[in-house]
Amino acid sequence: MRPFDYHRGTGIEDATRAAAQGSFIAGGTNLIDLMKLEVMAPERLVDINRIEELRGIEATDGGGLRIGALVSNTDLANDPRVRRHWPVLSRALLSGATQQLRNKATTGGNLLQRTRCLYFYDRAMPCNKRAPGTGCGAMEGVNRILAVLGTSEHCIATHPSDMAVAMMALGAEVEIVRASGATERLPLDDLYLLPGDTPERETVLAPGDLIAAVILPAPVEGRQAYRKVRDRASYAFALVSVAAVVAVEEGRISRADLAFGGLAPKPWRNRDVEAALVGQSPSEALFDRAADILLEDARGHGDNEFKIPLARRVLKAVLADLTTGAAA
Amino acid sequence: MQTSLTINGTARELDLDPRTSLLDALRHHLGLTGTKKGCDHGQCGACTALVNGRRVNACLSLLCMHDGDEVTTIEGLGQPGALSPMQQAFVEKDGFQCGYCTPGQICSATAMLEEIAQGWPSHVTEDLEAQPELTIEEISERMSGNLCRCSAYPNIVDAIRKAAGETA
Ligand SMILES: Cc1cc2nc3c(=O)[nH]c(=O)nc-3n(C[C@H](O)[C@H](O)[C@H](O)COP(=O)(O)OP(=O)(O)OC[C@H]3O[C@@H](n4cnc5c(N)ncnc54)[C@H](O)[C@@H]3O)c2cc1C
Ligand code: SF4
Ligand code: FES
Ligand code: FES
Predict the structure, then answer these.
(1) What is the CATH number of the domain that holds B157?
(2) Could you tell me if B27 and B35 are in contact, meaning their C-beta atoms sit under 8 angstroms apart?
(3) In what residue span(s) does the 2Fe-2S ferredoxin-type domain sit (chain B) (predicted)?
């Protein structure tokens, strides 16, 4: 690991100022891993763990929740309100990593964790994300875990988070404190950038910009599910995952909020898929049409081509589960 | 970086390079070699220790981030002659072969019983709001962060069930 200057942040302002030339560290479960490999080598680490304002889960006036950036994946999954009203979020969190890791992993860090692309991790390999301009080793290499949607000719990395997929389906927003001191609220969808020509830029955050909280809107009617398909039953990243909130009224789908993991460089939401479902009666043909729309532009790269038919099957299974028996 | 923390009940002051992981601090600077290094990347669980009562991977944590924390390692759970119920159960049920993963397994399992007692759900818990039960499926899921290259899993599960029976 490269040497760095360690700063224990005392407050939001102190931390954002200090991190202008460095990185925040929260749980450390992703950053320390990458620093050991020297894939990341910040000159300064700003430890935000002592900043009280970033802790706690509070009810909002609108009936939702404000989740502090430092809330651990464990505490969020266990929160009685989340378990009751946003079970898709508990389920997504519980499907991720292990209890040891969830105890340390934080809400902010989870959103900003880096891709698990093998070439990104291996400094001997070309990677446009780690070392812009060197090429993409994965494109014609081992890319079983990588993306089929939203990619570019420069990068096909996937975003590995489960939590973020559930938050995307729930329409979450992120509260950001810019290094300048300005506070902003963005839909989670707008936090992430697609790789395009600059795969090294993954979010709209600049150095020193802090995620302060995630805001969940009030719970909505409908049944919720998180379905994750992976290479082993536990302790593995998603190959494909679907977070869904689906409601049926009088035999017709009245809501289908869907987000996908494992398919794209960011947690993926496609409103056209949802629009095709809403107002229709559930049927296999309808679910196939939804999958057609989702996967219209999907493109595999050899190893990861299996994700395209897999995503179709997982989506159809989740929709079938959530609409069965819900019509009464 | 000056760091004050409590380790197995004893106050400690350390002034180490900020790059030092909690795991290396325990093993190399405090002589607590019970906590093991397997992968050093959060993938095996051999380094599991308890921080403020919660199990964590000591390899993915920097010592300097633990100022003021209370750390418990396998040495703090019990000692020869005064084993904890979980340590005793691992001995009685033969919950290991080479023993390398065992301190991590025991720290992890000790925390896990407490998590179940507190009603924490897991990925395999059917009803998120019900009190989870200590089934084999639950134990396997909740212990998936502790790999055992000798594959002593069946006896590890037996040991955990025995320890749970005795503490319940
Ligand atoms: C073996 C293993 C298996 C895993 N399996 C899964 C899995 O199945 N599913 C899954 O979803 N995840 C998985 N993870 C990833 C894990 O969820 C992430 O490492 C964790 O959520 C990151 O959170 P953290 O607080 O530790 O982040 P850190 O490592 O502290 O930080 C990560 C990044 O976020 C930045 N950051 C942190 N907090 C803030 C903030 N408030 N504002 C601005 N920037 C911030 C840091 O600067 C850093 O760049 C796994 C990890 C490991 C090691
Ligand atoms: S897919 Fe992206 S992260 Fe992976 S090697 Fe290519 S450029 Fe790097
Ligand atoms: S040594 Fe820490 S998880 Fe393997
Ligand atoms: S007993 Fe040998 S690794 Fe578990």
Answers:
(1) 1.10.150.120
(2) yes
(3) 1-77
Residue A328 has a pLDDT of: 38
Q: What is the full per-residue pLDDT of chain A (328 aa) written as tens digits?
A: 999 999 999 999 999 999 999 999 999 999 999 999 999 999 999 999 999 999 999 999 999 999 999 999 999 999 999 999 999 999 999 999 999 999 999 999 999 999 999 999 999 999 999 999 999 999 999 999 999 999 999 999 999 999 999 999 999 999 999 999 999 999 999 999 999 999 999 999 999 999 999 999 999 999 999 999 999 999 999 999 999 999 999 999 999 999 999 999 999 999 999 999 999 999 999 999 999 999 999 999 999 999 999 999 999 999 999 999 654 3
Domain of residue B16 covers 2-77
Count: domains in chain B: 2
DSSP state of A66: E
User: DSSP class of residue A106?
Assistant: B
For ligand 3, the distance from its centroid to the CA atom of residue A97, given in whole angstroms, is 13
**Do B105 and B59 fall within a single domain?**
no
- Looking up residue B62, the CATH number of its domain turns out to be 3.10.20.30
What's the gap in Å between the CA of B107 and the closest CA on chain A?
A: 11
Q: Is the Cβ of B141 closer than 8 Å to some Cβ of chain A?
A: yes
Q: Which of B1, B15, B16, B19 to mutate to test the interface with A (most CBs of A within 10 A)?
A: B19
| Together in a domain, B17 and B53 | yes
Residue A27 structure tokens: 């749980």
Tell whether B116 lies on the interface with A, counting CB pairs under 8 A. no
C-beta separation of A152 from A196 below 8 A: yes
Q: In the prediction, which pLDDT does A67 show? A: 98
Largest CA distance in chain A: 63
One domain, residues B93 and B162: yes
The candidate with the shortest Cα–Cα distance to A114, out of A203, A191, A5, is A203
Among B42, B122, B140, the residue with its CB nearest the CB of A29 is B42
Nearest to A159 by CA among A266, A295, A289: A266
Regarding whether B89 and B55 lie in a shared domain, the answer is no
Of the three residues B31, B61, B77, the one that is the final residue of a domain is B77
**Spatial CB neighbours of A261, under 8 Å, sequence gap ≥ 6:** A158, A159, A160, A161, A162, A164, A165, A228, A238, A240, A241, A242, A243, A267, A268
State whether B94 and B141 are in the same domain: yes
Residues B153 and B123 in one domain: yes
Instruction: Report the distance separating Cα A286 and Cα A281, nearest Å.
Output: 8
Same domain, yes or no: B53 and B69? yes
In this structure, are B163 and B93 located in the same domain? yes
Chain A residues touching residue B111 (CB < 8 angstroms) = 99
Instruction: Please choose, from the candidates B95, B38, B30, the residue with its C-alpha nearest in 3D space to the C-alpha of residue B66.
Output: B30
